[in-house]
Amino acid sequence: MATTNTTATTTSTTTATSMLESVLIRFKSLGINLLAIDFDMTIIDIHTGGRWTGTPDELAQHHIRPEFRQLIRACWRHDIAVAVVTFSPQTAVVQHALHQIVNPGGGSSS
Predict the structure, then answer these.
(1) Rounded to an integer, what distance in angstroms lies between the CA atom of residue 24 and that of residue 30?
(2) How far apart are CA 7 and CA 71, in angstroms?
(3) Where are the beta strands (DSSP E) in 1-110?
């Protein structure tokens, strides 16, 4: 039974990846070369209110939605720029979280 669930999950992930790749190819064919994404409650699953009190690593490791990790990395593969939109004054925290998406395990961006 576990094998069936694993197979279904793998198939679902592969389908989602194929759909994402198709969408990004379509974006490129339409001349779309920039994707702007909100940070709080979109890329991450919480709203920091510009007052995140944990470490930047905690935010990056526990609150970035996996779908947005995949989307941002795929945009880079397709030469689509990604702009992150936020009202947060904690730009260093946001930058660190984004660095963890594009360079996982690569250490601090500062």
Answers:
(1) 10
(2) 23
(3) 34-38, 81-85
Per DSSP, what are the bridge partners of residue 34? Answer: 81
Nearest to 50 by CA among 13, 104, 87: 87
> In 3-state terms, what secondary structure has residue 94?
helix
Q: What is the pLDDT of residues 4-35, one digit of tens each?
A: 566 666 667 778 888 999 999 999 999 999 99
Beta bridge partners of 12: none
Per-residue model confidence as pLDDT tens digits over 33-91 = 999 999 999 999 999 999 999 999 999 999 999 999 999 999 999 999 999 999 999 99
Q: Is 14 exposed, middle or buried (0-12, 13-18, 19+ CB in 10 A)?
A: exposed
First to last CA, the chain: 46
Q: What is the CB neighbour count within 10 angstroms for residue 16? A: 12
